[in-house]
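Handoff note, outgoing to incoming analyst
You'll be picking up this chain. Sequence as last confirmed:
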Amino acid sequence: MDGTSRLPLELAHGIRFDVDCEPVRSFPSFRGQRNFPGLWWFATTRRHIGYESWVERDQLMALDANPETVGVASQPFRLRWPDGRHHVPDYYARRSDGTVVIVDVRPDDRIPESDAELFARSEVVCIAAGWQYRRVGVLDPVLAANLRWLSGYRHPRALRPGVAAELLSCFAREQPLLEGATAVGDPLVVLPVLFHLLWHRRLVVDLSRTVLDDRTAVSAAAL
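Most recent structure output, in case you need it:
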């Protein structure tokens, strides 16, 4: 969809904003600004997705690491109400089961009353459109630390199919991370592949429990 189009809410449900549309506004960058905008290379779709702050970046990273997410659009559309108020949600996320969740990112301690009202209005509108709605804040710090580390290995270049097959076989029985990696081969060669498999959830750990280390229990994902 090129340019800007207005349409009734009931017609918006069928639009795949992650495929059919561009962001409705840009991501300004200027001297002295307090937030840090940028682009995240979204491994799921191999496209760059914009964010306006590091808090948004971390939530975008979590969407990318979620195997249920098949597409994301940033700043997907502008909601307008008859009283003149309007709002641009942060993310449109499409899932593998066909459902959609609209995400607003704002730390819990930075929501003035006027914005809380907009979020509440947005939730009502999104539900009416057949979408889910979530307002999220700062990502859990342990989960964020683990995802930031693993995200460095999300690109396909980190995958060595032969090593991956050996790792999946090795971790068919749960065991410590480094022990299993060493059993497969030189950790300098094996660990990048292991981290790639963890990012893509082909190997499984509890990323919210503790920061990854040599002793973290790892197992192959159930088929």
